[in-house]
Every structure is written in C-alpha cells, then in structure tokens.
Amino acid sequence: QVQLVESGGGLVQAGGSLRLSCAASGRTFWNYVMGWFRQAPGKEREFVAAIKWSRGLTYYADSVKGRFSIARDSAKNTMYLQMNSLKAEDTAVYYCSIDLRSTVVETTPDAYDYWGQGTQVTVSS
C-alpha cells in the first residue's frame, strides 16, 4: 500500500509562483514513475509532469513546459512541483500519483496506481 499526501496549494495572482509537495510512504521507491496531474471544473484530469524516480528524468506537458519544474528528494520520499509564471488557466485541483508498473512515462491517468487527495491551486487574473 502506498500513501501520497499533497500540500502547498493556495491562491496566487497571475504571474506568481507556488510549490507543491507530495510526500510518499508505504514502500521503498526506486524504479517507478511519479507524476502530477490536474483537473479543472468540468474538465478531464490532465497530465502535467512526471519524473522517473531512479534517474530523475523529467517530462512535461507542453502547456507547462518552461514554467513548471518537477523534482524529487529521494531521502525524504518527496516529490515537488515548482510552478512559476502562473496563469488563470492553471487553476485546478492538482494531484500527485505513482505508476508502479510502467518503465516508461505514461501521460494517461489510468496508468497510475495510487493518488493523493489533491490540493487546490487558484490563480486570479
């Protein structure tokens, strides 16, 4: 069993920054993929970014490339999402997730096995 707990969401003005954290527990994390997804009201959950835990390789959706940065601290079993230059369209509930089965980065929610409870990010224009 894996537990994922997000934190760091909030209200920020357009152009501002936030850093989300995702603390993972329940097993040893090594050769897995962890990801961030988001879901705005009335929309499907969409891929934001992912990281291959063992090598720290990162992947981003085109909509956030150059503005968001994903990272992990292996000693703390914690993943981060640094979000800069935030826009109103970034407003959503952000979820962290883990894919225990794939060796490649998947961008569809169905590929991920465990999810956090989500944290709200609201960007005011």
Q: Taking Cα atoms only, what radius of gyration do you get, to the nearest Å? A: 13 Å
- Count of individual beta strands: 11
Shape descriptor? globular
| Percentage of residues in DSSP E strands | over 45%
Explain this structure.
With 125 residues, the chain is mainly β. Helices cover 0% and strands 50% of the residues. It has strands spanning 3-7, 10-13, 18-25, 33-39, 46-52, 57-60, 68-73, 78-83, 92-99, 114-115, 119-124. The strands form two sheets. Strands 2, 4, 5, 6, 9, 10 and 11 form a seven-stranded mixed sheet that branches. The chain is globular. The N and C termini lie far apart (40 Å).
Provide a compact summary of the structure:
It is built from no helices and eleven strands. Helices cover 0% and strands 50% of the residues.
Keywords:
125 residues, four-stranded antiparallel sheet, globular
Summarize the helices and strands and which ones pair or pack.
Elements: E1 3-7, E2 10-13, E3 18-25, E4 33-39, E5 46-52, E6 57-60, E7 68-73, E8 78-83, E9 92-99, E10 114-115, E11 119-124
